[in-house]
Every structure is written in C-alpha cells, then in structure tokens.
C-alpha cells in the first residue's frame, strides 16, 4: 500500500442503549403532548361534569386546608425570625414587614402550596387513577359508552387549576399572620401598622405573577398526576410507581416553571 494513502477509518458505531433511551424519551414526550392536547379538546365540549369538578375541588382544597395552614404559619414565623438578625445589623428592622411580604407573596406562598399539593394531591390522583386502571374500571367505562377521560382527567385537572391559586392566596395570608405574630412579639408593632407596611411594596405585577404561577402549578400537578395514573400498568406495583412518579415529576416541573415565570415577569418590573 502507498505510504501517502490514508486509510479510511470506519465511522464509530452508535451505542444501542443510548439510541433506545433517546427513542423512549421522544415517545414519552409525544404521549404527554397527546395527553395534554386531548385535555384541551375535551374541556370545551359537553358533557360538562360540574358536580365532579366541585367534588374534586373539595378533595383538593378543603382537605388540604389543615396542612396548608400549619405549614404557612410556621414558614411566616421562621422566615421573620431568621431575617431579623441580618436586618438588625444595619438597624433596619423596621423593613422586616416589607421583606416578609415580598418574599411570601412573590415566591414562597405559591411555591410551598404547590409542593404540598404535589405531595398530597398529586400522589392521591396518581394512586386513585392507577388503581382504577389496573382493576380495569377505566376499560369498563370505555366499553359502557361513557367518557372516562372527561370524567376522571378533565375534572381533576380543572379542580387543581382552580383550587391551587385559592390555596396559595390563603397560604400567603396565613404566612403573613405568622410573620405578624413574630414581629409583634419582638418589635411591638401594631396589626394596622404591620399590614400597611406589608402591602406598601407590592404592586400589580407581584399579584399577577403569583396568580399566574399558582395556576400553572395547579395545572401541572393535575396533568402529571392524571397522566401517571391513567397510563399505569403492571398491577399494584404500577399503582405505587404512578403515585411516586406523580410526586417527583410534579415537583421537578414546578421548580422549572418557577424559574421560567420569575424570569418572564422580571422583564415587566
């Protein structure tokens, strides 16, 4: 062979494991897209399951009030207590109500509410629909001519999208009360003065961003829980996996959405 001739090296072979993983990821994304698109097709056309939506709102909202109340109050107390030493170094403890209001209303209230609902509501939806799938109750509904997707999925996603913003607003108010308790105990600030200082730094963009985040978080929790449960397989093992994946995936997406929405509304401030 001529020394000046360069041998052509064969192209490296692709790892079949990586190829299979990429294919499965794209298939999963396609299935999720189909699931969400089907929700938007079903939600605007009759029959409208108003009674089931109200029932699910009760399950999501009223049954979560206790844990939301306790958690929000503790967060308000702890955040105020931990922020005081830093402000006292600069003699700015009078700014504590403003700091608490900005932190709670802009970020903590929607985020903490979403995390609690992802753990409590998301797992409940995933386990409930998963058990219905593996026991063939959903298949029986399809055979009988009813629309299980509208009755089981649309109603629950609507319920979480409606209820989570209400719970987030409630959590924000309870957290502010927790902050007031700590401020009043250490600073002697009156309730009227505290509330005036709390709402002074807030504007329309703050309330709008908080509401938008809560709606998106609620929608995400509902869609993820329903998707994992509705597509559950492998018997009781699949039910547990659906509940676990609903919590983990919903929390991960909530944090991603938090970053994106904060960036978007940051352009309007």
Stretches with pLDDT under 50, minimum 5 residues = none
DSSP strand tally: 0
Radius of gyration: 24 Å
| Separate helix tally | 9
Provide the structure class. Answer: mainly alpha
Largest sheet: none
N-to-C span: 71 Å
Averaged pLDDT: 85
Share in β-strands: under 5%
User: Secondary-structure element sequence?
Assistant: HHHHHHHHH
- Gross morphology: elongated
> Helix fraction?
over 70%
Structure described in brief:
Helix content is 81%, strand content 0%.
Structural write-up:
The protein has 269 residues and is mainly alpha-helical. It has a domain at 93-173 and 194-266. The protein has nine helices and no strands. It has helices at residues 16-43, 50-61, 65-88, 96-134, 137-143, 148-187, 191-199, 204-230, 235-266. α3 (65-88) packs parallel to α6 and α4 packs antiparallel against α6. The longest helix has 40 residues, at 148-187. It is elongated and about 70 Å long. The chain starts with 15 loop residues before the first helix and ends with a helix.
Furnish the topology, listing elements before pairings.
Layout: H1 16-43, H2 50-61, H3 65-88, H4 96-134, H5 137-143, H6 148-187, H7 191-199, H8 204-230, H9 235-266
Helix pairs in contact: 2-6, 3-4, 3-6, 4-6, 4-7, 4-8, 4-9, 6-7, 6-8, 8-9
Task: Spell out the key features of this protein.
single chain, 269 residues, mainly alpha, 9 helices, 81% helix
